[in-house]
Amino acid sequence: MTKFWSFAPSVGNAGAYELRIDDIIDSQQSWWGDEVTPKLFAADLAACPGPLTLWINSAGGDVFAAAAIYTMLIEHKAKYGTLTVKVSGVAASAASLIAMAGDKILISPPGEIMLHNPWARAIGDSREMLHMSEVLDEIKAGQIDVYAQRTGKSRAEIAALMDAETYMGSATAVANGFADGILYQDSESTEPIFAPSMLGRAAIYALDAKAAEAMAGARNQQQPIAPEPEPAPQPNTPDEPQPDPEADTDEPNIEAMGLQALSLAEGLD
User: Fold this and answer.
1) Which residue in 30, 120, 244, 266 is a FRET match for 236, CA 20 to 30 A apart?
2) Which are the contacts of 117, defined by CB distance < 8 A and separation ≥ 6?
3) DSSP secondary structure letters along 59-99
4) Among positive and negative, which fits the CA dihedral 196, 70, 64, 139?
5) Residue 114: DSSP 8-state
C-alpha cells in the first residue's frame, strides 16, 4: 500500500507538524492497484493535533480526493491553528486546489502553480458524452469558487485562467493572489518576474517560437567576418633554364667514340 503523503512532528516547533505531498494525488484505487484513500489520510491527520505546515510537490491527480483533502485541512486548521502551505516544486492541477487551503501560501523561487480545466475519460453513446460534459462543468464551478475566494479574482477571470491551462512562476503567483510570498527572500515581492508566464500552454509555445526566430535574426544581423587578405603578389623571376635534351650527359656517346676511333686509324696509315 502506497501513500502519496507523509506526516512528521515539526523539528524545532513543539506541538506542530509537517505534512508532505510529493506524489500523484490518488483516490480509492489508482491505476496501479495502490489502495490509498482519503479515509487513510483523515486517520493520519487526526494523529497530528496541532498547527500544520504542508509541503507540496505534486503534478495533481484525482480531483475528488483533492477536494476531500482540502476540506479536511480547512477543518483541521479551524481546530488546531494555522496551516502554512509551502510549494517546494510544483502545485499543479488538483494539487493547486489543496494548496488554496493554506492560511499562508509560500512558494519556492523556481516553483510553479498550475490550474486547468478538469478532464475525464468517458465510454458510451452521445448522451453519455453530453452528461460527462455537464459533470466536468460542475466540477469546474466548484474549483472556481475555491480559487476566486482565495485570490479575490472574479469567476470569469479564474475560468479564463483554467481554460488556458495557466502556469504561474513564483512572483506571478504572488502578484495574482495564488501565493502570499516567496520562500528564502527577505521581502515578499508582488511583481511578476515575467508576465507571459500567466499565458496558457499554446501562447507559451508561440513565445518560444518567436524567441527562436528573434535569435536567428540576431545571428543574421551580426557583422560579417572580414575575408582573409589575399597573398601579396610575388616578384617576377626568370624561368630556370630547362635542360637541353641534346646536351652532353654523363652517359658515353657511342657514335662520337666511333668517329674518333676512325680518325685515329686513318692517321696511322
Assistant:
1) 244
2) 136, 140, 162, 163, 165
3) --B-HHHHHHHHHHHHHHHHHH--EEEEEEEEEETHHHHHH
4) negative
5) E
